[in-house]
Structures are given as structure tokens and as C-alpha cells.
Design a protein that fits this description.
The structure is a homotrimer.
Chain A: H1 9-23, E1 27-30, H2 35-38, H3 48-60, E2 63-67, H4 75-80, E3 87-88, E4 99-100, H5 114-131, E5 137-141, H6 154-168, H7 171-178, H8 202-230, E6 236-238, E7 240-241, H9 251-255, E8 262-265, H10 276-289, E9 293-298, H11 317-327, E10 330-333, H12 361-380, E11 389-392, H13 395-403, H14 421-435, E12 441-443, E13 455-458, H15 466-477, E14 481-485, H16 507-510, E15 512-513, E16 517-525, E17 538-544, E18 547-548, E19 552-556, E20 566-573, E21 576-581, E22 583-585, H17 587-600, E23 614-620, E24 626-632, E25 638-641, E26 647-649, E27 655-656, E28 661-664, E29 669-673
Parallel strand pairs in A: 1-2, 2-5, 5-6, 7-8, 8-9, 9-10, 11-12, 11-13, 13-14, 14-21
Antiparallel strand pairs in A: 3-4, 15-18, 16-17, 17-22, 19-20, 20-21, 23-24, 24-29, 25-28, 26-27, 26-29
Helix pairs in contact in A: 1-3, 5-8, 8-13, 10-14, 11-12, 14-17
């Protein structure tokens, strides 16, 4: 919401609400950045400013989700209690001295600080109680994009020490688990535990990353309990994740406190708009509670913290985006945000309205889409998506690999470009499936049973306890198909490399072992181009010297030395298969490998024959009818052979015969209901 | 001056003075880095060392400008009063904790510190009084290349708070002007004002940049008053700017304290020597007081703070440099410095003499030039330069754009290579004019009347109050020609984006409006190459989606999406025109656009027909005669058609007929007096 | 040694010792990182854990070198005495505030700290006394890869001040020597001496670098005295240098405290394996005491502090490495380390055994080599290497050039890639000699006589006192041949540029002088390709404008301006020659120049006719017999003409006739004993 305008607030509020209503918007999310408005001075509370807005929304029939405003401190609090500001560990392999955050940026606090908890609780109780019976307020959002903020304040550190005491029992046991004999740093008293700042212990770093996650979980569970204690019975509780697969948030654990998951997804636009990143984030969101979810924020006009990354969507992309989310299991799509802000960090993170607050190209497209949804929304919402392929996501592996990266040039795949050796593989896998029009779920290390899936993909499972490796082996033995990459099974739950032949407990199921590995200084070809990848017949960064024991070699390096060992093997084990990639494949090779494994698992069909620009999603709606979304993610018109039972295109109401040819305009789609 | 040599000082002093005299030098500038010599211990003063030098100069007929030595602290002061050392804000979008400067580097103090002011005043009073009646000392230089040093010490911060109290009245008014509601950071007491360190408020950052400028202005005005109080009546007061267009110095405001402006200009040499940067700096210097100025420092042999950027001038460049300055309005040219220093940071910032202190190639060329000037100087000095084109320079826009850059790859154009999205446009404009042999003045936002100019160039006027925009509109209405670029009129004086259709109050005069803009991920061509720029027909970085309302579209993007909007428009408004560039043009396109606008304004002629390597400057000397400088900035001989009235080449005394062909040797010139 | 395993320690120890014995290993080095095991709590000592290991080794006939474990602090000490942690100067031209090290990384202490010295002495006394009579323990290693750790704690700073007082006498003398008048920073009391943190004084920086070296020397001499006081008479004392040519260690001075020098050499492998870096490091090690030395660490499987630089050797390279060291004067080769560590910073710095602790490819190759050496070792050890070429190494020049680098792009030549303008030239010189199969010694500035060598190479001798320059001149005059590069003779021992024509006292011998120099913005060709270097006929970065006075010009720049001065000159002076390179030559040109000078000195022969992949080393063994090592450093088989007297290949025992053709398999060698 624009909170201050050159003209009188009241006048603008009416205009905004009228514009929203005219556009067909039905819900707004407010309040998350407003602590200093609710509580301008310590202990003085004000609701009138928000009452006025909520009332106006209510009158217009627009529902409201309110956020607890705890992620950004008011200035008076930072001045009175500077100990609330986070002492942050600088990034980098060797850390460095934690330094006190400066005031200004949001998300700069130690959420464990007693002073902060006191203030947060008092405010939350006031606000939630105030709106508990307001029918316009349908739900509560806890905080905003919560993270650990790398806080390492004394209370965080001492909490960590107590956590270690409970987990390891004695300093000697800890020293042994973390191999602190290394460089003579083992402990005999808990008081000698060094700070996180400069530690080089891989065990310490991994456990600290878990502690950071536990702190986020604890904080949000605490807020959830608090809000539920005060809220109305019909008001739901959610929190908006700041995108999924953040290394300092245990997304599954947080989700247990929520009625419904919400995600803020920002993605590439213009020539980078292809739906794949949205699908990745949606698949992850849906997998947390095995349920549909909300999109609380996504690109409106442009994003970026400066004026240097402004890429407003091409015509059609804003509308297609909404359907992309619905097709992937979202039950709501909201933007950040309604109107552009005149100043400060997000001046150029533009809302639906530009700074002039007039209707515009984005408004028109949002409005068109909202009006479509007023008609066909009931047929789309609550889509049930069922997948037969799962990707095993290991947050511990992501963290541990970041402490010991296996290659500087490993491509980042997210639109934000942050390098991450683990996510790079996860996202390559998901993108290959997406390009093959195969839906995927995510599963987590705690999963006790993978049998719901025909194909399990295991990217770089660097960290795992023996039990998980055993479950994967059992899954294969019992008929499951696994595609697994390098680094899997290497280290145990304390980031200690196993003292047995790699890949440890997976050796039997994988049918290979190895003692050696090498970085690849230059990309290598696979001998004979076994997967017809042409110029893309290259592997990079990493090569394990795989020794087949029961496995079959599928491909060898084209090199006088590395060529002695296979690059990819496949093992028949029990009634399943385990395909092992000992190297980092090109995207083309990865897609070829997955296509091969999908075929073996009987998961391919007509969806794998579509043009490259077209993506298809399937699901069953609340009425029990099957929906088929066909998206054209390109600037050109495309024709598609429709391969399912006769139905109708919900967007234009026209019937679609079996084997009909669909014509999709640029950045347009068809939604066929059988 | 070499201050210490292996041989006896006296002997060397005589030799230096003799060499200077033989070279024809007439003035030296001394003393600016010498606090510890004047005051070796707290309160103990020594003048003898300088008296000896000033006397020797006086005897040789060489005049002296003395600098107040306040820009570099003596070691004893830093030890006794470490609070004088500046607490510096680190650079970067998000700042960070201010840290106390270390001793060693110069320009590391908080110039507001009472201790510093006490010491500076005591010393200045002593020195100036000592030389007030010395006829050799003709003027005083205040400090040296003064800046804000990013100081954010407590006294600076509290001063800023008081400044805000006066400017905004209440914390609520401030919060409203700066949109501090954003992230819930608004203020209700002045005491809660956060430090500059980590602020993300664009309003705060802009006002702090002004405060930094005000501190520099205040400090130099204070020194000027002090020096004038003590100095002799005939001694002038100047300060040597550390080049113009620094973002933390309000050059116009500082100039009001001075009798004459002085500038230190360092520029590219060897293959990068073309006179353009000198012209830029001179045009700016001249515009501050609408008067001629001094060059207090420029390249002697080589520059650089290490041994890695040593590029001594090719033969002829040192001599041509002197005339380049004179042709642009300088009344004096001095070098930094006479002799090379044997140690420390500027060991490789070489003077006219190398470390051997013997005559050399540079000395010979300086000497040749000085002897020429002994003859023809009186015909050259005091040149009046009158221009019909002005560039509007907005320091606020430079700062505000640096907080919100519009493109990472925007080319830096200064020889120093510092990236700056605003200066990049300013310098492109000036360079295009320079290449077209069109002289330009700079005007500033405070200017109340632009009518002295036929063409006003307005680069990226991101920050401006409504009144300035109105003055520009009025200028157009009354017959002025304006060339204006993207981002102009966007934000108000508090860096808040206007809540009306862009470009705000300029909309009527520009005849366009826009609601959207985009970065350009890749350069785009203009459709149909409308300005015959060939390979240079490209625009980059930024595109506003201009909607012509009254304006004519001059060029469109060659792109299926961006092509819907024009890239360049022109509007006839009143009796003038406003040409608006919604994108960043290639240099070739910018030159073509300006050539077109200059033609429309009737400002082109034979000067626009010269070979590329040749640059011409015109002016009227003190005798009222017109001078025409023709420079050859290349390694090859060139021939030029002389297009003015018959006269004589002052350099060789030979007559030059109307329509004569001048032959210019490499890095040589002709100066024709009509 | 693996210090903790999932299975019982005892069991693993027996297995390790058995594997070592089976492999033919005869000595292990232990204990250097184990302070917390020796002294788990302040003042409580434990030896049993090591006794058990030493006993096991003794029983297996494996000798032990024990390290004093002082280079890594136990956690309890860092907590109790945080003042031991080093206050480190950040790198960079302008330094910055020294910051206290964090605990975690090793080598983070102020080795001057009294608390540290107290603890270190107590522990050393305990350990050494405990093993003084143990016949298995043959020697002591002091600390590990000791450096200055950039410590600038108060005691270090005050020590430096006292050092300056003694060296310079008065603050005025210091100020004069360091040209502190510059920026008015001269001193009149010692108390005003500024910290090292932000100094820009080149004299200060150089002297501080010497002080850092002196501290390392003092610390290791102190340990040597201490260890000798406690150790058994037959136990030797060494320290393992962390590679040679570190700028903060005076390697010659340290060596005076040692019975034998030891070096840890890590080098390129796979396609980067050519023996040249090993030869460089060995030549330097041998030159310290003019005696053979130990290799205490070298690459086993892979190295690197992350998983991103793993390059296990190709087959044959591990074995060839051992002989490479022996051929260069090593008397022992040890690896770091026996077995790979399961966690922490060196998880991927893999030992001979992988994490599975089973025999593997590396173990097999090490074992093969050790068994060979059991047979032929007595003929190889103690090889006397005598060279006729020396390279003058100036640590001061390395430091001073790092403060004033002459070119950002100057290629780094070490495998670690650290940029260093001085080392780049030194290593280029050594590599050229290596490629020419010419052995070289290093000599140091203190050397009083170079007459043992026919050719003296002087790279960039930026810092030197007059006396050294005089000795070089005398060497030439008396018939020596010198190849010298740019920057030599430029500054005196206080890093002050000489106030005479460069190259100062070398002018007469060099037969040239210069007053000017330039960086080269682009590489230039030498006119007419005088050394037939083809595409490699290029010089870069730096050009002195040499004025031949007596010298002959050997090559000119192909450039209209720079071409006025020669790039390379040669002077006949007395009965010797001095060849001067005023620019940075390509490797090819450097090799051509050195070949030319070697020919003139009569140092070339059949060794210069060998194929490029083959390297030859000569020496005389303890039996007085000449050995000729022929190495094939390539993946292909090569044939070599043997050019010495008939003998036998020690590796296969077969006779080798005069003029025989040797066939060398990939990464294999022949050792011919005459």
C-alpha cells in the first residue's frame, strides 16, 4: 500500500480501493513493514491508520491478510536496545569477526534477543487481538521472509553451546565427532568452545547452519503459537518464505507451524521468461505439506534494489504468470506490490501501478486476468498435482558443499545468479525434468519411504547418515529407479568423510566404488558421444574415478588418463536400478540421461514430443476433472497436438477434440478441462 | 620542492632556483604538505626553512603562492587528538559501520573537529601574518583538494541532525519527506535519527551528501575569512580543486569565497592525449565564477600512486598541454611538481625533473614553452571565451543516481575510470560538443535564466525541484533549444519520485510522458539507422517507454517489444524545441543528435568541417583581438583550412592569409591572431 | 597420522604401521599440530598417546622426526589469553586498521607475546626432554611453516620502535631517511611514531617487512636453542619452511639456527607437472647452507583447502617426483601426509591413503619407489650439485616492488598464482635456465664474492645499498658476466630513489643511464625480431628509456616513440660483460637472451640439444661418481642421446654406452652412473 502521497491519504485510499475493485482483485496483504506505525513510541499503540484501510477494503469486498511487522525494527528500538541488532558473521570460507549490524536495512536483528521477543510479543498480542473478530481479516502472515540473518550474538552462541552439550554429551565426544584433533583444537571444557567467527571445522560449520535453521524454526513456531492464541478461529496462519531452498531455513520444519505455506517467487522476465523457476519453487512449496499453497509475492512490473535490473514483462507474461502458478498448485497469486514507492531501497521494485498511481499496461493485464479468474477460477483453484518422480533435497548437503565447493565455475541456475554447487545440480535436474514435461515432487532426508515414486533423483547427497543411505538402497532393491550424482554418500551427518570405500553404504546398490577423484581443469568429451549430444557432449568440474564392481559402464571420458574410469554407470540391484553420474554433465547430457531413465521407468509419452517452447502441466480440479495446461513460453505462435480426451478450453469456452491441434499465441496458453 | 637531498639543502636550493629561472618559470606554489615543518612540535613554530626558499625565489624573480598546510596532519597531532581522524563511511550501496581512519594517508580528518580547527587556525594565523608583507608571496592557496573525506564523526552527525531540525522542522515532516514509513523506520524524536552508516533511505543519503558538501564549503569559507584577515591586501586567495565534478564538493559555493578559482587537472597522455578532458575541466572551472582561472597542477612526467601507471608524454604533448589550457581560459599553468620525490606514495608521480634532478626531456620542453610564453604570453593570457551552448550540471543528480545506478556497464569517461552513471552522460555530451568544435559552459540548478544560451543540454536531471523544471520549460517556450536525456524530472529535491506521470513538470515542454522503463539486457539498434551511424547505431542500458503526446518521434528501437515506443522524440513548444533521449545513445549517435540540434540553432559552420585530429578554440584576448587556436592532437602531420580573417601565427610570427592552409606538425598547434 | 578413527585407535595404528613398513617407508614426521593432545588443559601434560605411536614405529624400524606443536594454539589458551592472537594488518597498498585474529585458523598468533612464549617454552621443554633418549626419534622440527602472520600487536610495534631507535639514533635521522617531510609527517619524538596500519611511507613499509622477518628469525633461533638444550646429542634440528621465497621470512638467517634445511614443496600436477618449480625450490633450499636438505612435505594425492583444486598425479608422476627431488639435492622425501583427514580445512588435502585408508594407486606407486630406493638409494643420496650460474635474490626488492608494483598484469609463475612483480622475473629467469638444462644457485645480497660463478643473474634489484652495487660492478670488471633487468639499482636500502642518474652506481658497469621510464599499455615487438622469437617477439609492462653511454644496443622497440631508446643493451666493462634488459621480455626472448649469455660464458653443450620434454640433472654422489638424471616430463615416450661417459642406468641396472640412445617412457627417467 502506498502509505503517504502528496494528496490527502483518504482521497488516495478511496482511489486505490476503487482501482483494485475495478481490476477484480479480491485479497490484499498488508502490514508487514509497519512496526513504527503501530507503535510510534515505545508502548504507545495506534490502530486507526490501519482500521481505516481495513474498513475500506471490507466495504469493497476485498479480504485482508495481515502480517506481523516484526522483520524490521523501528528506529527507537534500535537506539534503545542496540543489543537487538545482529552480530553478523561475514561470508567466506574463513569467516571473520562477527560485526554488529547497522540500523537501516531490515532483517538485521538477533531474533533470540529477550528485548526483541518482549517487544514483538507485546505488539503481536495487541494487533492480533484488535483484528481477531474483523471478518475482513482472513489470515495472519508471520513476519516476512524470515532468516537467521547470520546472527551470532552472545545469546545465540551460548544457546548453541547448550545445544551441543545436549547433542554430544561431553566436549570429548564433540571433539571426536568433529575431528578437532586437527590442528590441535580439541576441547575438554564447554567453556573453551570457540566462537563461530573463524572456525575452520567443517563439523562446526554444518552444526551451526542447523542451529541457525533451528532458531528460525523456533522463532516462527513461537509466533504461530502466539498468533493462534490471540486470533479468531477462522483466521489462518501462514508465513511468506523468501523463496524456497534457502540454506538457513528448514522449510519443512517451519511449515509444521502453518495452516498453509506461502512463497514469494521472483523470476526472470522478458527473454528469460519460461516458467521453469516458478515450477521449481512451486514444486518445492507443494512438497512441504503435500498441499496447495499461496503465492504471496511475485514480479509486478520490475524488481531490483537499484535502477540497474529493470525488466518489465513483455505483453502476456504477467497473465501467463498467474496461470503458471495455478497450474503448479498455487491457490492464490499476489504481487509485491500494488503501487510503486517513491523512495528508499525499493524505489525501483515497481508495483502494479507505477509511481504515477494511474492505470497502466500492467494494471490492464492484471485486470484482464483477474476478470477471467472471476469466471473460471473455481475450475482452477485447488488443483491436485500428482507426480511419479521425486528429487531428494538435502539442505545439509547444500551447506556442507558450500564449505567445500568442488568447482569455482559451476553455473548458477537461479535468476539471482548466486553460485551454489549443490543447488546447481538440483536445479539442473529439475530443469531437465521440466523441459521433458515431467512433474516432480521434492522429498527430504527424513522421508522414510520413497515407494510412492517410480524415479528418485539424488543430487550430490554429500551429507547423510547411514540410515538414509540404507533407505535409498532398499528403495532400489524393491524396484525403485534412482539417478544419483557424484559426491553422494561421501560424508556422514557430522560432515566427516566416511572411513570406508566411497560411496560408503551406497556401494552395494550403486555397484561401484572409488578411492580417487579429480577436478577437471578443462571440460572433457564422453568417448564416442554415446548420447548424441553433439557440441553438448561435455562434462566438467569433477570426476570420480569409478571402479565398477557390479555396475555397467555407460560412458567413458575421452582422455588418456581419465578414460580409464567410467563417467556414468548403471547398476541393477534387486529389482531396481541405480544410475550413478561421477561427473557434472552438460544440461543436454543430463536431459538425455533422465529421458533414458524415465523411459526405463515407463514414464514417457506424448508430452515428451511437444515443441521446445511449449510446457504442459496436468492435474485434477476440485470437481474431480482433469485439467491440461498448455503454455507457450515464446514470442512466436506455436501449434500443439493435443493428446488427451476431448474437453473444452476454459479460457475461451470452445470445445477441444481429441487429437486437436491447439494454436497458442505468444505468451498465451490453453486450459483444457476434460 | 624537493625538501631533502643527499647533498646540502642550500646547495640544491640554489641549483633548483637556477634551473627554474633558466627554464623561464615565473611562479611556484609551495607549502601545502608541510605542517610538520612549520610546527614540528605542538605550539613551536619555525619559518626559517621557508624564508630561505622564498628569499631565493624572490631574488630570482620567481613569485610564490603559499598553501595553508591543513590537509595533512602532523604525527604528533594525530597521536594527541585521535578524535580528529575521520570516522569514514565505507563505500557501497549499504554503507556499513563508519571506521576511524588510520594515520598515514593525508585527507583523513574530520574538518569540523574543534581540536583540528584550533590547531589549523593557530597555524594559519602564524604563517599568513609572517608573509603578509612579503612581495614575493602573491597569493594564498587554502588547503589542498579539500573534500569531505566521508567523515561521519559524532560532531558531524550531530551537526547533521541540527541541520535537519532546521530544514524539516519536525521529525514527522522529515519522515514524510523521506518516506521513512518504508520498512517502518519513521521518526518521532530527533534523538532517534539513525546514523548514516547503514541507511537505505535515498532521501537521507542525498541530504547527507549535501551536508558533506556544506561542510567543505563551510571549512573553506572559514579559511578564506581567516587568511584575508591576516594577509596582505594584494595577496589573492584561491584553492586548488582536486579536479571538478567531485560529488562531495559544491564547487560553485566554494568559489564564492575565492578571488580566483584553481584546478588540478590530470589527464591521459601518450595515445590518450586529445585535449578533451582538459577542455571539460576548464569549461567547468571557468563557469564557477564566469572568469578565467589557474591550473595549479597538471601532469609533468608521469602520475600514479604505484609504478604501474607511468605514461610520460610523447614529444610535443607537454608543450601542447600548456596552450590547451590557455586556449580554454587558464591564466597560469603549474605542474605538480618540480622534482620527483625519492620515497613514499608519490615516488612515481614524477615532477618535471626526474629523481636525478638533472635537466631532461620534460625540462627541455617546459623550458621551450616558457620561453615562448615570455614572448607571446601577453597576447594569450586573459582570453575571453564566449559560448552559446550550456550543459546543466546537477550534483544532486550525480549523487542520487549513484545510490540508484541504472546500469552496471555504463562506460566511465574520465581518464581515472571511476564509474558514474551521471558523469558518463555529462562527459559524453561534452565530448560530443568538443569533437564538433563547439565550446560549452556549465550552468547549475540555481541558475535563474538560461537565455544567454541558444542550446541547453540537460543530462539525466534526476533530482530537481519543480521550480527548476519550470525554468527549463520557460526557456523552451521562449525560444530555447534543449537536448535532454532519460531520468530527467524523475525525482524531487528529496529524491522522492514524483507521484505524477513522468517526466513530471517537464511533460508539457517535452511533449511526452511515460509510465514504464526497462534496462536493455543487450544493446539495440535504432530502426532503419535514422542517423547513418552504421556500426555505431546502437543504444544501451536504459529505455523509457515514451508516449508522444505532442512530440514527434525521431527514432524507434528495432525490437518486437521495445519498438512500440520511440527512443528519441522532439517537441516544438512555444518558440523553442525540446529533444528528449529516452535511452543511452552510442557516442556516434549522441554526436549526430547534437550536430542536428546545433544546426537547428544555427550554431554550425566551418569548424565542423575540420579533420578529426584537429581541435579549434576561439576567444578574444586582453587587447580585444580574436585568437584562433588550431591543435593537432595526433602523431601525424595534418593540414587545415583556416577559415577566419587574415592574421598572424603568434608562434612563428608568420602571416596567415584568409583561407590559408595551415600545416600542423604532430602534437603541434598554430595560434592565429586576427 | 590419522588421529582418530571409527575403529579402535590401537587396531588402526598397527595397520598403518604395517602398511608403511610394507611400502618401504623409513621415516615419519609427527606431532606438529597436536598441542591440545600434549597439553589438554593448562599445565596438564600427556605423552602416552604419542609414546604408543613412537614405540610402534620403533618396532617397525621406522624413524621419527617430531615437531614442536607451537604453530596452532589449543582452544583453552586462546580463551585464557586472547592477547596472544595476532592483530593483523590487512593486505593492500593502504593497509587499514589491524584487527585481532579469530580463533580457528592456525598461525594466528603474535609469536612475541610473553604468554605465548611462556606456554611454548614449557611445552617444548617437556616434550623434548621426554624423547631426548628415544633412539627412534632422530630429529626435531621447530614449529611449522613459520611466518610473521602479519602480527602488529602492541609488543610487536613497541619492539619495532626500539629497533628504529637503535638503527636510526634520532627521530630526525629516521625522518630524513624515510623522507617523512612528505605530507608533513616527520617525527621529533619516538612516541609519535605512527602505527604500521595506514602508513604510506615506503621506507616504513620496507623496514617493517624486515622487522617481521627478524621476528621470525628470533622466534626460530629461540626455539632452536631451547630444543638443543633439551634434546639428545644425536638428534638433529630442522624446521620445515612453508616453501621458499616468502616475503616475511629471511630464509638465510633462519637457516643459521638449523642443522639441516627442510622445505615443504607443493607443485602443479597432471598437465602442469614438469619439475621446474621443484628445481626452483630445491635450488633455493640448497643455497641457504650450501648443503643438501630435506623435503618434509610434498603432494601426495591432491592438495587444496576446498574440493575445487583436486588434481591427483597421472601415473608415474609420484615416482618421478621423488627422483626429481633427489636429483636436485634432497636427502629425504616425505609427504604431507600419510592418510586423508575426515574433516576440517584439509579434508581434500589428501594423503597417500584416501579416506578409506586402504592401499590405492598412490600407495602402490610410493611403495614401488621406496623399494627401488632401498636398493639404489645409497648411490643417490647426498648428491653434490655444483653450478656455474647464480641468481641474486633480494627479499627487500620483492617487498619494495610489492609496495610499488610496476604492472598489474605481470604474470605470476608459481603454481599458487600469487601475483608478485619481483618473483615473476626471478622465476622467469630460473625457468629459462631450467628449460636450457642449466643448473643454478641462489646468492643473497650479503654475498661478498660472486667469483665462484661464471654468470650472475640480477633480476629487478630495486633495493640495494651502494656496496652491493659496487660488488656487482667489481664482479663484471674482473671478468664476470651479468644479466640484469630493469629496476635494478633504483632505490637505496631505505627504499629511497637515488638522487643520481639511474641505475646509480651501476651506471659505469652497465654503460647506460636513464631518466625516464614508461609502462607499456600494450605489448610491443622488438624491431626486426632480432632473436628470431616469432610470435613471442614481444615485451611488456615496463620500458626504461635507456641511453647507451658505453653499451651496445642489442634491440629496439618497434614504435615511433619508444623506438628511440634501446630495449636491451650489453656493455663490456673491464674483462666482463653486463647485459641490461630495460623491459619485461617474453619467456621466449628471455630464454634466447640467456642462451646467448651462456654461450658467451662457455656454459653450453649437448644438454642444450635435448628435446623440450626432457630435463637433465648432474651431480656427484657420495662415492664420488657422476650421476646423470634424464627425466621425461611428458605423456609420450621420448628418445634422448646420452652424451656422457659410459655407465649404467641404476633403475634397471643395464649398461649405457657413450652416445647411447635412451628411451624414456612417459613420466619416467633414467639415472646413469658413470
Amino acid at each position: 500500500m502506498p502509505q503517504d502521497t502528496p494528496t490527502a491519504q483518504a482521497e488516495r485510499l478511496d482511489k486505490d480501493v476503487a482501482l483494485m475493485k475495478a481490476a477484480g482483485l479480491s485479497v490484499v496483504r498488508m502490514g508487514e513493514s509497519t512496526w513504527s506505525l503501530w507503535e510510534p513510541e515505545d508502548g504507545h499503540f495506534d490502530y486507526a491508520w490501519m482500521d481505516r484501510i481495513v474498513d475500506a477494503m471490507g466495504k469493497a469486498g476485498i479480504k485482508v491478510i495481515l502480517g506481523t511487522p516484526t522483520y524490521s525494527l523501528p528506529a527507537w528500538m534500535a537506539r534503545q536496545h542496540s543489543e537487538i541488532l545482529a552480530d553478523r558473521i561475514p561470508p567466506g570460507l574463513f569467516g571473520g569477526k562477527a560485526t554488529r549490524s547497522t540500523y537501516g536495512i531490515r532483517q538485521n536483528m538477533d531474533t533470540d534477543s529477550p528485548a526483541y521477543r518482549f517487544y514483538a510479543e507485546r505488539l503481536i498480542r495487541h494487533i492480533v487481538a484488535h483484528y481477531k473478530d474483523n471478518p475482513t481479516v482472513i489470515g495472519w502472515q508471520l513476519d516476512n521472509e524470515t532468516g537467521s540473518y547470520d546472527a551470532a550474538n552472545s545469546d545465540v552462541f551460548i544457546g548453541f553451546q547448550h545445544h551441543l552439550e545436549k547433542k554430544f554429551g561431553t566436549p570429548e565426544a564433540l571433539s571426536k565427532a568433529w575431528f578437532l584433533n586437527y590442528w590441535g583444537e580439541n576441547l575438554h571444557t564447554w567453556e573453551d568452545l570457540p566462537k563461530r567467527d573463524g572456525t575452520i571445522s567443517t563439523g562446526y560449520k554444518l552444526e551451526w547452519s542447523r542451529w541457525s535453521q533451528m532458531r528460525v524454526t523456533d522463532f516462527l513456531h513461537w509466533q504461530a503459537v502466539l498468533v493462534r492464541e490471540c486470533a479468531g478461529a477462522s483466521q489462518f496462519v501462514t508465513t511468506d518464505y523468501g523463496s524456497m531452498m534457502r540454506r538457513d531455513v528448514n522449510e519443512e520444519a517451519v511449515a509444521q507451524a502453518l495452516d498453509i505455506v506461502a512463497n514469494n517467487i521472483y523470476h526472470g522476465t522478458q527473454d528469460h521468461y519460461d516458467g521453469s523457476y516458478q515450477a521449481l519453487q512451486c514444486d518445492f512449496s507443494r512438497s512441504l505439506k503435500h498441499a496447495n499453497f499461496l503465492i504471496t509475492e511475485t514480479n509486478a512490473q520490475t524488481i531490483g534494489w537499484t535502477s540497474a535490473s529493470q525488466f518489465p514483462p513483455y505483453d502476456g507474461q504477467l497473465r501467463e504468470d498467474v496461470y503458471t502458478y495455478l497450474a503448479n498448485g498455487a491457490n492464490m497469486v499476489e504481487y509485491w506490490h500494488w503501487a510503486s514507492i517513491a523512495g528508499n531501497q525499493e524505489t525501483y521494485w515497481k508495483g502494479i501501478l507505477s509511481h504515477d498511481l494511474e492505470p497502466n499496461r500492467a494494471y490492464a493485464e492484471v485486470s484482464r486476468t483477474a476478470h477471467e479468474l472471476q469466471k473460471i477460477g473455481p475450475s482452477l483453484v485447488g488443483l491436485k498435482v500428482k507426480n511419479q518422480v521425486a528429487i531428494l533435497y538435502s539442505r545439509d548437503s547444500a551447506n556442507a558443499i558450500s564449505f567445500m565447493p568442488y568447482g569455482g565455475g559451476v553455473p548458477s541456475r537461479s535468476w539471482s545468479g548466486e553460485p551454489d554447487g549443490y543447488l546447481s545440480v538440483v536445479q539442473q535436474m529439475h530443469k531437465a525434468l521440466y523441459d521433458l514435461n515431467i512433474g516432480a515432487d521434492f522429498v527430504f532426508p527424513e522421508a522414510t519411504d520413497f515407494s510412492a515414486y517410480k524415479l528418485l533423483i539424488v543430487p550430490a547427497l554429500y551429507i547423510s547418515d547411514d540410515a538414509l543411505l540404507q533407505r535409498i538402497s532398499d528403495y532400489v532393491k524393491n524396484g525403485g529407479h534412482v539417478v544419483m550424482t557424484f559426491k553422494s554418500g561421501f560424508a556422514n551427518e557430522n560432515s566427516a568423510v566416511r572411513w570406508v570405500r566411497a560411496p560408503g553404504p551406497l556401494r552395494e546398490a550403486a555397484g561401484i566404488s572409488y578411492q580417487e577423484f579429480s577436478n577437471l581443469e578443462h571440460p572433457l568429451a564422453l568417448k564416442g558421444d554415446p548420447f548424441q549430444a553433439g557440441a553438448e557432449n561435455v562434462v566438467s568440474y569433477w570426476a570420480e574415478f569409478l571402479i565398477p564392481e557390479h555396475a555397467k559402464s555407460l560412458a567413458f571420458y575421452d582422455h588418456f588418463f581419465f578414460g580409464k574410469w567410467p563417467a556414468i554407470t548403471e547398476n541393477f540391484y534387486g529389482s531396481g536400478t541405480l544410475l550413478y553420474e561421477g561427473t557434472y554433465l552438460s544440461d543436454e547430457l543430463q536431459t538425455a540421461i533422465l529421458r533414458r531413465s524415465l523411459e526405463a521407468a515407463g514414464l514417457t509419452g506424448s508430452d515428451q514430443q511437444l515443441p521446445a517452447a511449449v510446457h504442459v502441466q496436468h492435474g485434477v480440479n476440485r470437481l474431480g476433472k482433469r485439467l491440461h495446461y498448455y503454455f507457450n513460453y515464446s514470442a512466436g505462435e506455436v501449434k500443439v497436438n493435443y493428446a488427451y480426451a476431448a474437453g473444452a478450453n476454459l479460457l475461451d469456452g470452445k470445445p477441444v477434440a481429441k487429437a486437436a491441434v491447439l494454436t497458442l499465441a505468444p505468451w498465451d496458453l490453453a486450459i483444457i478441462e476434460e
